[in-house]
Task: inverse folding
């Protein structure tokens, strides 16, 4: 039987270690962002993407050389799931939105004449400079808006101390997620923004559950030392935190393994985010409350919602 | 909290059954659905282009061109008025959005005349009484004329609306399956074409403004078509449609325009068997065409499409019937497309393709298959894990999960929301997260038991205490989903939809369905039913 309820682990004892670990990871992420940067997909930097499927295996190096003779600038060719599935990326052409459209024709013609095999064009995406600029902007705005909305929501439902702690944990998760994409150089595209927003929601969800319990315990044990109280609250909710993380990860892993190439980056971001989000609720969000001077004298009339 | 009145039980079951009925069509094929009794819902989930295959195009109306054209018309009007009033102007400058010139004797009278012209020229566009569409400013002899922002906005808006209509007509002519053509923002058009994974032909159809004009060829000078000298005033040099190097000198005056066409059809010339497009004018067009051909027998008459000369046949006799044909060395498909373009009318401004996303049918099918398989495996894993942790209660949560999944499908079908690949990911994520509400409740129940409550009270209080936490926790995820919905378009938007639906259905099932099941068994429940060690 699996029952981890009723634990009494001293989570706050390791808070210095976890704070240092988190800080180091954040610094690393920021450094990676400025050194190697994000490997933007065509959604954000514009350009052309063509996915083809062939009946025979293709020698990639030869194809790459051939496409590079087209003088379309940087052309990347990579395997996509199998050696008969190739992804061809052509960088954005100089000369505005209209010019990008010609790339598809040129590449398709060149492929047909170079490859002596049947080609199935599975996917074609062309994003011009105007749209890519807007997408990156709206993506950044969406993430900021989500973090801000969470800040406001927690502030209303709790106190500003909680709101601050939760948002620090949230920013921690977002930075580490962007950092992992900088370090791995996995393609950063539109679905990754969706993943980050979901991570924001999930991480907040996790933090709120712990905070809810902190608030409840603050009312219940008025004279308990704050460190003990925070430890108690984390332990109270630990079983739930783990069970929910495990079920979410089980679903995501299944999607990562069986869900196909197209969605792999998205799923990877989500898996990473769930792990980081779970960690941050326990080791960042909750311990932070120790330093944020949370209010101890909760008015019993405003405590209606959890003692109802 | 545990007591359910009959009416409550009934309504909970009714909601579940109704959504399940809407989910039902998705497990049958289209043929099987045909034999369904008519009172049952038959709508399946609406698949996004990334799953069913198809093409998405984002176009923008070239608004700069619209303003440029308006400025050019204004330019001609202003010069005419100045000339009529015997004013000598100098330093006449035409920029993208204004006219500037130096003139002496520019008074209020003339200013009014110019304003009136611009109002009458644009009466269809903006009716503003005496108010003018122009800003005329004068600094001693320097005059600057530009359009008001309001007028520019209105012109653009009209041009976009008109473009939308023409795009729709052109695409409808091709007979594509259920195209969706929508305006986005102030100057953009989104086109969704299910089932089309190579939109080359549509792109080329949309890439032409298709402005057709009939103009006379300037025969006043002899010239070398490969290297013409400067065109005389009132004429311009235009290239041939088929050969970029072959030039014509064409008189600028438009004798008849494409707006007077009522029909255009592709066909074959009975003598040469060459593909042609035959056309028919409306009354005004026929009259104009008749007059021009009558007066210019023996002269070449150019057919110009988007500033390219398609052909310039010599007029053999007056054409009074109001119909004619164009032959320009095109093949059958080109003739067909030209006919489509002429029937649909000219675009008020060029369209620029900003974005294209096309997915072939088998990639879509592969994605569905992979998504379904991943969902099933994830589902089984979660089900086993829940039973492992929460035993009997876990089983109840699993039942709720199954219902939950079908409810998501049912709600998607009911509202005809679009299911995309990220949407499938959203459903799978929901599988993982949907149990959360039940997990929160079960953990509370365990805690209550540990604190000495009996089973009944523990369940009762567990539900009570978990409620606010569940709401808080889910509202945060919902906020993220809502922000994503408004920020994203296309496939990613589908993710936010399934995520949001999943949040609602999972909270609903936790508080109604599992609770109902537990309450029906309340008296027989034991602590180990919720996965607790029996010695606690």
Result:
């Amino acid at each position: 039987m699996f029952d981890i309820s009723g634990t009494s682990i001293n989570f706050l004892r390791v808070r210095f270690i976890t704070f240092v670990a988190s800080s180091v990871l954040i610094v690393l992420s920021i450094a990676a962002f400025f050194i190697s940067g994000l490997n933007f997909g065509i959604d954000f930097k514009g350009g052309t993407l063509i996915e083809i499927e062939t009946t025979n295996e293709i020698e990639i190096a030869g194809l790459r050389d051939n496409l590079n003779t087209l003088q379309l600038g940087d052309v990347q060719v990579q395997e996509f799931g199998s050696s008969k599935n190739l992804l061809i990326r052509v960088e954005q052409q100089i000369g505005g939105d209209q010019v990008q459209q010609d790339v598809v024709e040129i590449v398709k013609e060149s492929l047909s004449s170079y490859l002596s095999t049947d080609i199935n064009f599975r996917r074609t995406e062309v994003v011009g400079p105007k749209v890519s600029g807007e997408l990156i902007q709206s993506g950044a705005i969406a993430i900021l808006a989500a973090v801000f909305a969470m800040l406001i929501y927690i502030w209303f439902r709790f106190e500003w101390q909680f709101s601050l702690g939760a948002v620090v944990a949230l920013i921690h998760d977002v930075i580490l997620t962007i950092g992992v994409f900088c370090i791995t150089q996995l393609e950063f595209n539109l679905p990754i923004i969706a993943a980050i927003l979901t991570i924001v929601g999930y991480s907040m969800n996790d933090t709120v559950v712990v905070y809810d319990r902190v608030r409840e315990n603050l009312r219940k044990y008025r004279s308990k030392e704050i460190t003990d109280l925070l430890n108690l609250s984390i332990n109270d909710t630990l079983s739930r935190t783990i069970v929910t993380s495990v079920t979410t990860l089980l679903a995501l892993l299944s999607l990562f393994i069986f869900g196909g190439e197209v969605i792999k980056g998205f799923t990877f971001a989500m898996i990473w985010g769930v792990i980081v989000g779970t960690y941050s609720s326990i080791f960042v969000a909750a311990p932070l409350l120790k330093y944020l001077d949370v209010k101890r004298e909760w008015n019993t009339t405003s405590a209606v919602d959890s003692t109802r | 909290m545990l007591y359910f009145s009959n009416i409550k039980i009934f309504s909970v079951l009714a909601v579940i059954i109704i959504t399940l009925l809407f989910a039902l069509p998705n497990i049958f094929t289209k043929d099987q659905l045909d034999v369904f009794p008519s009172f049952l819902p038959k709508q399946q989930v609406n698949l996004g282009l990334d799953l069913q295959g198809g093409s998405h195009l984002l176009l923008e109306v070239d608004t700069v061109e619209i303003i440029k054209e308006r400025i050019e018309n204004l330019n001609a009007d202003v010069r005419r008025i100045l000339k009529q009033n015997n004013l000598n102007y100098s330093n006449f400058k035409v920029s993208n959005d204004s006219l500037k010139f130096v003139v002496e004797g520019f008074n209020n009278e003339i200013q009014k005349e110019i304003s009136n012209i611009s109002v009458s020229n644009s009466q269809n566009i903006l009716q503003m009484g005496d108010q003018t569409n122009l800003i005329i400013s004068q600094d001693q002899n320097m005059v600057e004329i530009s359009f008001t922002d309001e007028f520019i906005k209105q012109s653009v808006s009209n041009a976009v609306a008109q473009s939308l209509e023409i795009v729709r007509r052109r695409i409808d002519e091709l007979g594509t399956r259920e195209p969706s053509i929508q305006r986005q923002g102030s100057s953009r058009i989104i086109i969704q074409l299910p089932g089309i994974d190579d939109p080359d032909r549509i792109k080329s159809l949309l890439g032409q403004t298709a402005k057709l004009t009939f103009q006379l060829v300037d025969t006043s000078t002899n010239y070398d078509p490969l290297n013409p000298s400067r065109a005389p005033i009132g004429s311009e040099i235009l290239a041939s449609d088929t050969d970029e190097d072959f030039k014509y000198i064409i008189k600028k005056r438009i004798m008849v325009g494409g707006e007077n066409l009522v029909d255009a059809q592709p066909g074959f010339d009975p003598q040469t068997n060459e593909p042609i497009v035959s056309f028919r004018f409306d009354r005004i067009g026929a009259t104009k065409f008749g007059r021009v051909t009558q007066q210019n027998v023996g002269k070449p008459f150019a057919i110009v499409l988007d500033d390219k000369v398609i052909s310039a046949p010599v007029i053999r006799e007056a054409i009074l019937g109001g119909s004619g044909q164009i032959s320009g060395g095109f093949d059958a498909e080109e003739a067909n497309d030209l006919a489509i373009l002429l029937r649909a009318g000219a675009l008020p401004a060029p369209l620029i393709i900003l974005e294209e996303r096309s997915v072939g049918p088998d990639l879509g099918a592969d994605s569905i298959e992979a998504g379904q398989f991943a969902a099933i495996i994830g589902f089984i894993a979660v089900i086993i894990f829940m039973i492992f942790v929460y035993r009997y209660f876990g089983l109840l949560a699993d039942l709720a999960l199954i219902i939950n999944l079908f409810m998501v499908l049912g709600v998607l079908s009911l509202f005809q929301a679009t299911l995309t690949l990220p949407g499938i990911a959203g459903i799978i994520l929901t599988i993982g997260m949907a149990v959360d509400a039940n997990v929160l409740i079960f953990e509370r129940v365990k805690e209550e038991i540990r604190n000495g409550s009996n089973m009944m009270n523990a369940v009762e209080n567990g539900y009570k205490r978990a409620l606010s936490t569940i709401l808080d926790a889910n509202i945060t995820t919902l906020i993220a989903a809502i922000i994503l919905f408004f920020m994203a378009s296309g496939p990613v938007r589908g993710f936010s939809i399934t995520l949001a639906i999943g949040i609602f259905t999972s909270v609903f099932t936790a508080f109604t369905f599992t609770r109902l099941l537990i309450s029906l068994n309340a008296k027989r429940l034991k602590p180990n039913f919720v996965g607790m060690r029996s010695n606690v």
Observations:
- The radius of gyration of chain A is 24 Å.
- Confidence is low (pLDDT under 50) at residues 301-308 of chain A.
- Residues 166 and 285 of chain A are 6 Å apart (CA to CA).
